[in-house]
Structure formats: structure tokens, C-alpha cells
Amino acid sequence: MSEVAQNVGATGRANCGACHFKGGGGDGVKHGDLDTSLIKPPKELDVHMSPEGENMVCADCHKTEAHQIPGSRYHMTVNDTHGKDLPESDGMPATCASCHGLKPHKKQKLNDHVDTLACQTCHVPEFARGGKPTLMYWDWSTAGDKARGVEKDENGWTTYNFKKGTEKWEANIIPEYRWFNGDTDYIFAGEQVEPNEKGVIIINKISGAPDDPNARIYPFKIVKGKQGYDPETKQLLVPHLFPFNKEDKTAYWKGFNWDEAFKVGMETAGLPYSGKYEWVDTEMYWPQTHMVAPGEQSLHCDACHSPGGRLTQVAGIYVPGQDRFPWLDFLGWGLALLALIGVAIHAILRILSRKKNAH
Ligand code: HEC
Ligand code: HEC
Ligand code: HEC
Ligand code: HEC
Ligand code: HEC
User: Fold this and answer.
1) How confident is the model at residue 74 (pLDDT cuts 50, 70, 90)?
2) 344 CA to centre of ligand 2 in angstroms
3) Burial class (CB in 10 A: 0-12, 13-18, 19+), 107
């Protein structure tokens, strides 16, 4: 304790990151935009936190008051209507507009977009950009094959682990874009849930629609997986993973028996279990807000305003240049052809007339 007491000091990226970079059991497992590459990031990775840039610490944006850390992923502030927090604060200092204001750009056309797009959509062009991969897929149903042990791909990233099942790690990922007003509805342990029409249980449902004044198009990491589900009580199952003691064989990571692991896990959580389990597809949304790239590396016009642009999947908007209409193309090429014929006729006439003049 004296060692601890003698080392009390200001917070930094590494000590906030001691928990937030390694949540979920390892570096980069959870967020996608928070991993150990942010301890000393180059400027291309994070303009704010890079020692070559502003060298900010987490608490420069997450400015605490009475040990309350502002910023959330349950109720986020997607539309900051207040703008700059100096001279007067709205109590939410972490948003981009708190420092940059509501019209941050010199170029007016970019400022025209901030009613539709979150700052992060253009300024976090890809996540997991710091050389560390993030976990994108986790299928528990395949776990238990001790003969396979642990398998890795050519990058050294785990593809199979007999304790955890099939994994997929990726880096430099283009986010998925959704309308989002900042509100997220998480499933709690014990809540009754059923798979949606696609057979998927969404762990945390995000809210937001084009006609919602607080909603913007926001970037997300969506992690997919397969988890234990009780088809009778309609609950996601809590597995017992770590053994309580040396004798405990009911833990999955000791006995490798899902029946036992779900039974003891649910019992310990004080929840009912029918004794039947299935594997169900799940998805979880992780908002992307860190790893802000320098201005010149943010999304430029053609990332969206071109055929097959980044926002193709987003409903409720018309993005000029993104969508290709076959008849428009046909008309376009038709016009180009007419123009070419016109040019050709013009050239022939000029050649003819020059010949005439020469005579
Ligand atoms: C340039 C400003 C900035 C810096 C620096 C920053 N953050 Fe954030 N952070 C944000 C914003 C903006 C949000 C979204 C908050 C909201 O809308 O409520 C956020 C959200 C979060 C969240 C909740 C959302 C989530 O994805 O779970 C966590 C946790 C977090 N930050 C941790 C950190 C840590 C740890 C650091 C330092 C390594 C850090 N932040 C540095 C701006 C910043
Ligand atoms: C000892 C571990 C630990 C440390 C150190 C730590 N945090 Fe957290 N933090 C947590 C946990 C746990 C949560 C809750 C996560 C959840 O509910 O999903 C959390 C939540 C947050 C949130 C989101 C709050 C919300 O409502 O979603 C932010 C922002 C945050 N922390 C920032 C920071 C910052 C900035 C630092 C450094 C000054 C820091 N944390 C240090 C463990 C830690
Ligand atoms: C605590 C204040 C603060 C917050 C919050 C903040 N920034 Fe910054 N930001 C700065 C400062 C200071 C600079 C460096 C000076 C400058 O270029 O304006 C900077 C630089 C930038 C740059 C680089 C500009 C360039 O010339 O390359 C971008 C882009 C940017 N911020 C976007 C954002 C986004 C997006 C968010 C929200 C996720 C955000 N900022 C949140 C203070 C902040
Ligand atoms: C449509 C995409 C887009 C959106 C949305 C967007 N930005 Fe930008 N931003 C850019 C681009 C591109 C640049 C680089 C400007 C350039 O090259 O002239 C830039 C530059 C900046 C700069 C540097 C100043 C400047 O004018 O070059 C800051 C600061 C900034 N953005 C902050 C923000 C904040 C804060 C938000 C949200 C309120 C935001 N941006 C929303 C694309 C966007
Ligand atoms: C991240 C995607 C994205 C980027 C990058 C982007 N736009 Fe857009 N743009 C949109 C969306 C979405 C709309 C539709 C807005 C709406 O429906 O309100 C739009 C609308 C427009 C419009 C028509 C509406 C208007 O404001 O006049 C123009 C023109 C435009 N963008 C020009 C640009 C230019 C120029 C750039 C680069 C400086 C750019 N956009 C960058 C997504 C983007």
C-alpha cells in the first residue's frame, strides 16, 4: 500500500488503458478504437493523443468533476447542441464540438454535413489502425476440442482456442454505419429475448432514425458471435468458466461440459435454467470515437459520393453520386456518344474547310 500511496499522480493514457484497452480478456478484444497502441500513438493514429500531436490524456476530453467521468456508451451525446464548452460548460466536455464548436471547418460544404453525419463518421476512417487487431467474431459452440488446442493464422492471430471456440481478429477495419441518437438498450442477464427475423439476438439495440433530430450516421464495430441460449426460458445463458477451486469440475475450463457449466453458471447467477441449450447468433454494437486521424486522412468526398460509397447500406438518405441508376448510365453514355459524333463531324468539317482554304 505504501508503494501505491507514494505513486499517486495524474492519470494518463496507460493507466486508464490498463482497464479500457484490455477489457474482455486481452488487448483490443472489445472496443476496436481503444487498445495499447494508444499509449504512444503516432499522429496518423490519433491526432489528439499522439506525442507528435497534442499529447492529450484521456482526462483532457473525459474531464472529471468530483470523480465522475463524463462520456458513456449507454447514453451518448451524438448531437451536442451546446457547442464549445468555454467559457460556459454544458457538463459534457468530451464531445468533439466541446472544443471544435458546431461549425469546425473552414470549408462550408463540410459544415453542411454535420446535421446528418457524426464527426466520427468522417474522422475515424478505419478502426484498429494501430497495428493491434480487434476481435470481430467469437463462436463459443466450437469450443472443447483439446486435440486442436490453439490455432493461429499467418499474422499470429488466434483462429481457434479450445477454451473459447472459433475467433476472428481483424485490423484496419472500415466501420459499419447506422443512424444513432446516443441511446442504447442493453439486454440484462435474466431478460427474455428471442432471435429476430434473421435469427440473431442483438445484445445492445441502438436507437435512431433519419427523422430524429438527435440522430446522426455514426460508425460502429459490430462483433458477431454464437452464444448459449435456453429455448424454453428464452434467456441467454451465463456459463460457469473458471473453477471455484481445485476440486470443481463443473467449470467449463475444467470439465469441458456445457450442460454442467450452464447449470452451475445460471444457478450461481440466481437465474432459472430448463436444462436445454442451443447456440444462437448474436451481435453487439461498439461505437467508434477514438483514433481520430489528421484532417487530410479523414474521409473525402468520393468515399461517399461515388458508386458503392460507404453509406450504401444506410436508409433514409439520398447521397448524390452514390447510387447508380442503369437508365441514367445509359443516358449518360448515350450523351457521351452523341458528343463524340459531334466532335468527329466538327473535325471532319474543319479538315475539309482547311483543304478548301489551301487551294
Ligand atoms: C479527443 C477526445 C477524447 C480522448 C482523448 C479520449 N476520449 Fe474517450 N470518448 C470521447 C468521446 C467524444 C466519447 C463519446 C462520449 C459520449 O458520447 O458520451 C468517448 C467515449 C469513451 C468511452 C465510452 C464509450 C465506449 O466505447 O465504451 C470510454 C470507455 C472511453 N471514451 C475511454 C477513453 C480512454 C480510456 C481514453 C484514453 C486512452 C479516452 N477515452 C480518450 C472522446 C475522447
Ligand atoms: C480499474 C479499472 C478502470 C480504470 C483504471 C478506469 N476505468 Fe473507466 N470504467 C471501468 C469500468 C469497469 C467501466 C464500466 C464499463 C461498463 O459498464 O461497460 C468504466 C466506464 C468508463 C466510461 C464509460 C462510462 C459509461 O457510462 O459508459 C468512461 C468514459 C471511462 N470509464 C473512462 C475512464 C478514464 C478516462 C479513466 C482514467 C482516468 C478510466 N476510465 C479508468 C474501469 C476502469
Ligand atoms: C479537449 C478538446 C478536444 C476535443 C474534445 C476534441 N478535440 Fe480535436 N483537436 C483538439 C486540439 C487542441 C487539436 C489540435 C489543434 C487543431 O488542429 O485545432 C485538435 C485537432 C483535431 C483534428 C486535426 C486537425 C488537423 O489540422 O489535422 C481533427 C480532425 C479533430 N481534432 C477532430 C476531432 C473529433 C472528430 C473529435 C471528437 C471525437 C475531437 N476532435 C475532439 C482538441 C479537441
Ligand atoms: C463529411 C465528412 C466530415 C464530417 C461530417 C466532419 N468532418 Fe471535420 N473534416 C473533414 C475533412 C475532409 C477535413 C479536412 C479538411 C480539408 O482537407 O480541407 C476536416 C477537417 C477538420 C478539422 C480541421 C480544420 C479544417 O477546417 O481543416 C477539424 C477541427 C474537424 N474537421 C473537426 C470536425 C468536427 C468537430 C466535426 C463534427 C462536428 C466534423 N469535423 C465533421 C471531414 C468531415
Ligand atoms: C461520410 C460520407 C460523406 C462524405 C465524406 C461527404 N459527403 Fe456529401 N453527403 C453525404 C450525405 C449522407 C448526404 C445527404 C445529406 C442529407 O440527406 O441530408 C450528402 C449530401 C451532399 C450534397 C447535397 C446536399 C448539399 O449539402 O448540397 C453535396 C453537394 C455534398 N454532399 C457534397 C460533398 C462534398 C463536396 C464533400 C467533400 C468535401 C462531401 N460531400 C463529403 C455524405 C458524405
Assistant:
1) confident
2) 69
3) exposed
